[in-house]
């Protein structure tokens, strides 16, 4: 099984950015933990701050992966294009958020992705990615 994790804007700052919300670990370190835990799954990971690049990676995953774990970050609440990309592909997408977006600012309560996702996992910190991987098993 091949799963691609796609992270959106500012998630390259995990471990530095607002640790009270996002924790103190970098995603790169956490990704190594996921690879060690799920040795029977081929995990790949990309991060981009650019909306169009995220759309391209979602589309590419459709022909190279069995599923996507997508944390589109702030683009979740603003990007019709990312929502359309998720709707257009034939593999399941799990929408993930580190924080509980419903416990934050009102604009974060809307997602252009959720309607097309297989499921949504939020509020469990980095463990949200672990839970998303388990949902594919």
Describe the secondary-structure layout:
Elements lengths: L1 E6 L11 H4 L4 H11 L4 E6 L3 H14 L2 E5 L8 H9 L4 E5 L21 E4 L4 H10 L1
Helix pairs in contact: 3-4
What are the main properties of this structure?
single chain; 137 residues; alpha/beta; Rossmann fold; five-stranded parallel sheet; 5 helices; 5 strands
Describe what this molecule looks like in 3D:
It is built from five helices and five strands; from the N terminus they run E-H-H-E-H-E-H-E-E-H. The protein is of the alpha/beta class and 137 residues long. The protein has a single domain (2-136), classed as Rossmann fold (3-Layer(aba) Sandwich), CATH 3.40.50.9100. Strands 2-1-3-4-5 form a five-stranded parallel sheet, with helices on both faces.
Q: Care to give the gist of this entry?
A:
The chain has helices at residues 19-22, 27-37, 51-64, 80-88, 127-136; strands spanning 2-7, 42-47, 67-71, 93-97, 119-122.
């Amino acid at each position: 099984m091949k799963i691609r994790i796609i992270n959106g804007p500012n998630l390259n700052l995990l471990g530095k950015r607002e640790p009270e919300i996002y924790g103190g670990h970098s995603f790169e370190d956490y990704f190594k933990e996921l690879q060690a835990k799920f040795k029977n799954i081929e995990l790949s990971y990309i991060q981009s701050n650019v909306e169009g690049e995220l759309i391209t990676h979602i589309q590419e995953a459709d022909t190279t992966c069995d599923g996507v774990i997508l944390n589109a970050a702030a683009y979740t609440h603003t990007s019709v294009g990312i929502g359309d990309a998720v709707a257009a592909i034939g593999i399941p997408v799990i929408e993930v958020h580190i924080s509980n977006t419903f416990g934050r600012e009102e604009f974060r309560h809307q997602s252009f992705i959720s309607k097309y996702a297989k499921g949504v996992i939020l509020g469990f910190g980095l463990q949200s990615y672990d839970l998303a991987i388990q949902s594919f098993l």
